[in-house]
Amino acid sequence: MIETIRWVNNSIRIIDQAELPNKEVYLNVSSVDELIDSIIKLKVRGAPALGIAGAYGMVLGLRELITSNEFISVEKVNKIAESLIGSRPTAVNLKWGVSRIKRIIELKQDAKTNELMDSAMSEAHAVLAEDIQCCLSLGRQGSVLINDNFSILTHCNTGGLATGGFGTALGVIVTAHQQHKRIHVYVDETRPLLQGTRLTSWELMKAGIDHTIIADNMAGYLMAQKKVDCVIVGADRVAKNGDAANKIGTYSLAVLCEKHNVPFYVAAPTSTIDSIAKNGNDIPIEERNQEEITHLLWNRIAPVGAKAYNPAFDVTPATMITAIITEKTIYKGPHYNFAD
Ligand code: MRU
User: Fold this and answer.
1) Residue 195 CA, closest ligand 1 atom number
2) Using one digit for the tens of pLDDT, what is the confidence trace for 139-173?
3) Residues lining ligand 1, CB < 6 A?
4) Nearest CA owner, ligand 1 atom 6
5) Domains and CATH numbers, the chain
6) For residue 258, how far is its CA from the centre of ligand 1 (angstroms)?
7) Residue 97, H or E segment
8) Is the pTM of this model over 0.90?
9) pLDDT (tens digit, 9 = 90+) per residue, 25-64?
10) Strands 237-238 and 244-247, how do they pair?
């Protein structure tokens, strides 16, 4: 289990994912502004990990209000919540984690400050503990879809680093490996920020799982050669009809799967299901800095002045998803209806 994000010495301790795999360093984040900066720079990333960060971030925000002797008004709490949620708009878990603590603050508004702080803190710890259990359960659920000798293709990073420590789509793969199924994983490099090459490969190395990194544009060729038995990815937000937003490039994989008759699975905890979004059109897509495209790991590769487009996520229509795996069960497609 990777200690991606923990509460240590009165601050949030995160493994700095921007430095991986070259350096394994931990950062102590002790203010809301620092946390927002770490989220924007993807030092902490992945939808469920962002949910946990959001929860602990609200605790930091509450502490800032208390120590500056400010009255804990609904407006001030909302302002902190909105600034955290706005730092990564697509990952609905961030909003979910923030809302868990906001609810406690609202419920306990009349309590003494130390009691309020204790309640907020225990709720944030519960968000982390629940995520770990949830991912273990999701891994068990999804592992039934993985047969012995399967070659699995995955995109971005959905492992312990993207969660409280175990992972979603990668958690399914790790569980299958723990069940002694002989598997091979094709890891999409995942341009522009290379979460596949840097993070997923790092995790698979640690877990001792056989894998091969490929450039994102190689998946079709592999499928044409019948080298992929299934694709399994995570999600940053799933709409009520099952449309799923995930790292840019996921939709292209689903199109390839349809063409080549390869099962396409999405693994996500129920906290990733947005009970407000009716379909993919209701999912906000984060657009990031052009430099992530014009530069490769901060070294310029494009001519000076070249324009670039950088949506961080895309939406895969529900009808292209063979099944959605949650911690509760496996929902079979092509039609989904997630109730409120
Ligand atoms: O931009 P990132 O690295 O936060 O994107 C992460 C993903 O797209 C993951 O697939 C998703 O958050 C699911 S994580 C279990």
Assistant:
1) 3
2) 999 999 999 999 999 999 999 999 999 999 999 99
3) 42, 45-48, 91, 156, 158, 162-163, 168, 195, 234-236, 246-247, 312
4) 46
5) 5-136 (1.20.120.420), 140-332 (3.40.50.10470)
6) 22
7) helix 92-107
8) yes
9) 999 999 999 999 999 999 999 999 999 999 999 999 999 9
10) antiparallel
